[in-house]
Design brief:
The protein is mainly β. The chain has helices at residues 16-28, 36-46; strands at 66-73, 76-83, 88-92, 98-105, 107-115, 127-139, 145-147, 155-160, 164-171, 185-188, 201-204. It has a 6-stranded antiparallel beta sheet, with no helix packed on it.
Length: 207
């Protein structure tokens, strides 16, 4: 018995993550500083990201923090962080970088800070900073967060309230040789008072 012919047509649609990557190539390849308006199109695409878009449908229980690379290009990196309930990403920075973060599923809390002075950055000496977000809860239904080289909470720490996944876009990516190392910090009292409450400043905790 002859089989019935099947008719196919070209599928012009692209997976959402492919469209995000293409948009990143265009936006981060442009000259000039990154602004909220420049990354607005990327943020809009990130709103619709689901577990299936990232191949996470089979993820049920997360047992440890995992880093999953999605795309690595000279001007940006896209990655997924998988975090089990109760685990933390310690206070760290994103020097001279713009970062878009979207909780894909689950929820977490964020504490974030900005330096009072970004003109001269010393990664070793303690420095004053101001709290931006304090114990802010973010869930999968919320829009992406945006931080810039000199604002938006360039230093932050995350704690998972449930098992969760975060989609991160870093532009440009971390690069020690180009002055963009990932530094970890701890709160310290301001130098003017031995008994001042923390946080009043931050000190490097990289060893």
């Amino acid at each position: 018995m002859d089989s019935v012919p099947v008719h196919l047509e070209k599928d012009e649609s692209k997976p959402l993550i492919s469209r995000i990557i293409e948009t990143c190539r265009r936006v981060y390849g442009e000259e000039g500083d990154l602004t909220a308006s420049k990354v607005a199109g990327i943020r809009e695409l990130m709103k619709g990201v689901t577990k299936s878009d990232l191949g996470l449908n089979t993820v049920s229980k997360i047992t440890e923090i995992e880093y999953v690379s999605v795309a690595e290009e000279p001007t940006f990196h896209i990655a997924i962080f998988l975090m089990p309930k109760g685990k933390r990403l310690p206070l760290h920075d994103h020097p001279r970088m713009c970062v878009l973060s979207k909780v894909v599923f689950g929820s977490l809390t964020i504490n974030s800070y900005d330096r009072l002075n970004y003109d001269t950055i010393d990664f070793k000496a303690p420095f004053p900073c101001r709290p931006l977000l304090t114990e802010m809860e973010v869930a999968g239904s919320d829009p992406s967060l945006t931080l810039f080289p000199t604002g938006g909470g360039n230093l932050h720490e995350l704690e998972a309230l449930t098992d969760c996944a975060i989609l991160d876009i870093l532009a440009p990516p971390y690069d020690f040789d180009r002055g963009r190392p990932c530094n970890y910090y701890r709160p310290v009292p301001p130098p003017s008072s031995k008994h001042a409450p923390v946080p009043g400043g931050a000190a490097a905790a990289n060893g």
